[in-house]
Amino acid sequence: MDKKKKQQENESPSQQLYSHLFEACNIMRGPINQDEYKSYITPLLFFKRISDSFDEETEIALKESDGDKEYAAFPENHIFQIPEGCHWIDVRNKSENIGKAIVNAMNGIERANQDKIAGLFSSFDDANWTDKNKLSDERLKNLIEHMSQVRLRNSDYPSDVMGDAYEYLIKKFADLSKKNAGEFYTPRTIVKLMIWLLDPQPGDSVYDPACGTGGMLIEAIKYIHNDKQTYGKIYGQEKNLSTSAIASMNLLLHGKRDVTVTQGDTLRKPNYIEGGKLKTFNCVVANPPFSLKNWGAAQFETDPYGRNLWGCPTDKNGDFAWLQHMVKSMDPVRGKCAVVLPQGVLFRGNRDGKIREELVKTDLLDCIIGLTGGVFYSTTVSACILYLNNRKPKEHKGKVCMIDASSIYTAQRAQNIMSEEDIDRVFKLYADYKDVPDFVKIVSNKDIVANGNSLAINNYVKKTSEEVASPEEVRKKFFEALKDVQDAEAKMMKLLEDGGYLSE
Fold first, then answer.
1. Is residue 168 located within the same domain as residue 191?
2. How many Cα atoms are found within 13 Å in the side-chain-facing hemisphere of 170?
3. Quick one: pLDDT band at residue 1, thresholds 50, 70, 90?
4. Are residue 278 and residue 421 in the same domain, yes or no?
5. Is position 245 within any domain?
6. Which ranges constitute the DSSP H helices of 29-97?
7. Does the pLDDT at position 182 exceed 50?
8. What is the pLDDT of residue 163?
9. Which of 42-51, 364-373, 406-415 is predicted most confidently?
10. Are 31 and 155 in the same domain?
């Protein structure tokens, strides 16, 4: 049996879908660089899903109406509208100028669904479908035929499976192109850990001010286990136009509706304003760009929304600008916040030191988790998770749970990861809320102040010093081990001689 076919038979339907989607990248290999795969495969995936779902909705409507084609065409029966000539089949039937047909179809669908997917396809402006020197009609025909082999209806692949397939592609693209990958992809286990800390409940609002492709919002919805309770409660903002469009589609692919994702520079112009004030949320979560430069310090210094709560960082590093924006976005009574930042925020001096001093005074900080280096794409910088709570449990008040999770990871060839077991272990350390040698220290705010307001975890979580044996003890153990080896060798030789395997 063919090795590839045997492998496919051993895969789950989801894994088969993942493999099929990634195989599309191989068709483009050569004229298209690895960095560019996502600009072609991603919109094509969306295009195929929209077309297949439209066909499924049409069939359902026809059954409901005893074959009434006019009824089946009603917009109310479809999530997305597909104008004439813009269906996947229309492109598949083309034998020449296929790139132009793809562009026309995508543009047509986008124009017909401005309220749902504005900018989705057009945001992939680095994809040059009509350049026949890069993508010949033959290669595009092969790509379209390959994608046509898998039907992507809801009945074939439910929203969660489809969404997970897209998440798989995001990770694959990140694996292939390390540069800038961390800007839009956060390892999903770390996302889970952050959502567990926040513990969003049905009816809670959730906001990600640097939402990337929407992974944290999706995980929050999954955690709540009640989609209807999240309608109108999920918000995201993303600076990059194409990434914000992908986030919207990612949420739709996961079956998540009535979610608001907007495009814009959060630090310079936050989009969620109510009555002239910053809108607040029950749960605020983000993995913002690390140590962002030229982020708009001059404007932030006189911020009309009062986000410079504890001072304005320099324009050389926006880490504390993100944190203050998120804190200001927390509901003043029940708000919670979880954010990934480089560990430099825990000990840097000057302006950052003064901001950190004010942070400690607020007693909002509940937990700091130090992560190992190399678990995020595009950076080897060691990161940490800061968890803040406007309603800290009584037993947590005046304290910070310091967790050194730098040794809790799973080493892999490409990069370190945090497995499901790893994050389970870390979360338990927080939930137990007690000192654990080498891993956890419950530190009072008074001790932090006495330590110059440093939040560096290694100042508080001390490693158990290993006993160092004396030279005499080492020598003794060596000769004991040597004697054991010699005795074992002599015994083996006697057995061989007794068995007649060796002559004397």
1. no
2. 24
3. very low
4. yes
5. yes
6. 37-64, 69-72, 88-92
7. no
8. 65
9. 364-373
10. yes
Domain identity same for 449 and 487: no
Contact yes or no for 370/480 (Cβ under 8 A)? no
Q: 69 with 62: CB under 8 angstroms?
A: yes
Structure-token match 């020598």, residue found:
475
Positive or negative: CA dihedral 333, 335, 336, 337: negative
The top-scoring range by mean pLDDT among 122-136, 143-157, 181-195, 446-460 is: 446-460
Angstrom distance (rounded) from CA 331 to CA 5: 54
Residue 146 has a pLDDT of 96
Strand pairing report for 234-238 and 260-263: parallel
Q: Report the half-sphere exposure of 286 (CA within 13 A, side-chain side).
A: 30
Three-class DSSP labels, 142-166: HHHHHHHCCCCCCCCCCHHHHHHHH
**466 domain residue, yes or no:** no
Give the pLDDT confidence score for residue 379 in this predicted structure.
67
**Ordered DSSP codes for 89-147:** HHHHT--S-HHHHHHHHHHHHHHHTHHHHTTTTTT-TT--TT-TTTS-HHHHHHHHHHH
The secondary structure element, H or E, covering residue 208 is strand 206-208
In-domain check, residue 111: yes
Helix, strand, coil percentages for the chain (3-state, nearest 5): 50, 10, 40
Domain-located, residue 401? yes
d(CA 221, CA 202): 9
Q: What is the pLDDT confidence band of residue 243, given thresholds at 50, 70 and 90?
A: confident
Residues 109, 185: one domain? Answer: no
**Is the separation of the CB atoms in 303 and 269 below 8 Å?**
no
How many alpha carbons lie under 13 Å from residue 443 in its C-beta half-sphere?
31
pLDDT digits (tens, 9 = 90+) for 389-443: 999 999 999 999 999 999 999 988 767 889 999 999 999 999 999 999 999 999 9
Cβ partners under 8 Å of residue 219, min gap 6: 188, 191, 192, 195
| 293 and 232 within one domain | yes
Task: With CA atoms as reference, report the closest residue to 42 among 211, 178, 182, 213.
Answer: 213
Q: Which domain holds residue 24?
A: 3-176
The pLDDT tens digits of the residues spanning 442-492 come to 999 999 999 999 999 999 998 886 555 667 777 777 887 888 888 888 888
Q: Report the CATH number at residue 122.
A: 1.20.1260.30
Q: What does the buried/exposed string (b/e) look like for 29-53 if buried means 16 or more CB atoms within 10 Å of the residue's CB? A: eeebeeebbbbbbbbbbbbbbbbbb
Please report the pLDDT score of residue 466 as a whole number: 53
